[in-house]
Amino acid sequence: MPPVRPALPTPPPILALVLSMLSIQGGAAFAKTLFPELGAAGTTALRVTLAAALLSLVFRPRLRALTPAAWRAVLPYGAALGLMNLTFYLSLTRLPLGLAVTLEFVGPLVLSLVLSRRLTDLVWVALAALGIVLIAPHGGGGGHLDLIGAGFALTAGAFWALYILAGGAVGRRVPGVTGVVAGMIVAAVVTLPFGVATAGTALLAPSALLAGLAVAVLSSALPYSLEMVALRAIPPRIFGVLMSVEPAIAALSGLLFLHESLALTQWLAMLCVIAASVGISLSGERPLGEAEPAN
């Protein structure tokens, strides 16, 4: 009888979720350092493609067993995932990390508010709107906000909202993690042409592949595993509250790893968006059922 391997220790659920957010934003900060060599599109393609390969090796999904109806759910899910990552990385070429994540967070927040049936949630709409107003006059380092960068970040948020809606359909039609892995493969197919057009053969350089693998682990494989630990033990409402602090973690990651500072009004704007997200999480159902890292 073969010896029984001891199970790997798992962190407590709340710690697992905090570590997941730290990993995601640390991965985003590291990914930004690759932009001079690979560009935002090249970095996106490398990260998503390697993440798809890693998840395929770990989970070995039965893709051939997917029905046409399942693929009709997976295709928009994967496309939204790929374009969400691409537009978010494009926003990072023009915005500090914390500011980009704050603006991106507006997408799922608006979706939560649209799906809500509570009049009291209008308070959270106003609070989130105040946050956007506070952001608008300022950019990183005290200059004017880069409107193109803000547009990319808000577009990433819109794709995040579409990803959440499509993820619900995938969860209903595809069992287990097969849908998630299939969606990541579709995301790789969507982003790879942009990456090849931008970075070309630089994507195949050993240093680029190694760095891309690190980003894939930090931004996809590791946080996905940690979030699964958290989701099994934390109620969805509390999960939503804890996830709401991610813009602040992103800002701290940008400050520590990229030396990006935000103006006081931008910190206040971030707190408004976080408070609105916490409010909508506590006041009703939050449709962030899928927790695959956006960044």
From TrEMBL:
Membrane topology: Multi-pass membrane protein
TM region(s), chain numbering: 41-59, 71-91, 97-115, 122-141, 147-165, 177-197, 203-226, 238-258, 264-282
Main location: membrane
Residues covered by the EamA domain: 148-281
This protein's UniProt keywords: Cell membrane, Membrane, Transmembrane, Transmembrane helix
Pfam families: EamA
Compartment(s) of residence: Cell membrane
Domain of life: Bacteria
PANTHER family for the chain: EAMA DOMAIN-CONTAINING PROTEIN, OS03G0707200 PROTEIN-RELATED
Annotated protein name in UniProt: Threonine/homoserine exporter RhtA
Biological source species: Deinococcus carri
Record lineage: Bacteria, Thermotogati, Deinococcota, Deinococci, Deinococcales
